[in-house]
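Materials and Methods. Structural model of Type I-E CRISPR-associated protein Cas6/Cse3/CasE. The 295-residue sequence of Type I-E CRISPR-associated protein Cas6/Cse3/CasE from Methylomonas fluvii was retrieved and submitted for structure prediction as follows.
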Amino acid sequence: MYFSRVRIRPDIYKSSQLARVLEGNVYGCHQLLWDLFPEQDKRTFLYREEIAREQIGPSPAVRGEPLYYVVSQNKPIELEGSLFKVESKEYDPRLANGLCMQFDCRVNPVVSRQGKKHDVVMDAQLQFLALLIKSHGLDGALPAKIDKGIYKRLLLDNGGAGLEAELSQLLAEDSRYAERLGQISGLADKLEWAIKARVDQALTSWMIKQGERCGFTLLSSDDGLPKLQNSTYAWHGLQQKTAKKGEKSGFSSVDFTGELQITDAEKFRQTLFTGLGRAKAFGCGLLMVRRLGNR
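The predicted structure was written out as tokens:
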């Protein structure tokens, strides 16, 4: 296996509109990176796109340029006149059960309901809002169309003091948000924070289940909460698929950072090589790890 750092050649990046074309275009990035493996008919690589922030080191990057980290079975081939500058090294991490590591990953978290895949974030929001609506006897006023905005408006217009008390209780019981409760004023703000708390719980549960399947467990802090943070929830449209199917097509992604402990070294190795979750062809699933220095 190989771990590679790939960037657009500085002269091309500075003198062309390529960066604007690639911005947000996960399908285009996927196709261009595949050109680094000209003899492969099937994708055998993972990648993650990041934005350069530093301009120091032996290979300085242009601030704001896209960088691609790639894990692949075969070494990327940098052909003459290539769009990319590639730096590769063999990737054979030393792993053992009990080893603790810091990790970063971008994933496409989904949950299955009645045989269909649903975005974990949107599913958690809708399930939570529907539960609140039912608990306050407002389900009779629900429209046939499932719409988060309508659900929230129904609660804010009719929930009153009872809803505010329930939301306050939910936030007070969540140690991640209890300290902020005194700074949150108004029913609308409490509802937004309660939704965020429920999303955090759903994403943490998703990652815990991935660990059970992939050979790791999340480490916990002194308060018993998993050492895990999520950020940068985003929707990525796939225009090419939309054009073919005639309907909206795409996927969501979430960035995770945290700390883990390996429970099954072989399963974890395979996860490093084959990725975590879905949408791996479009920049999701690559687990980037490093050892924790104090363990």
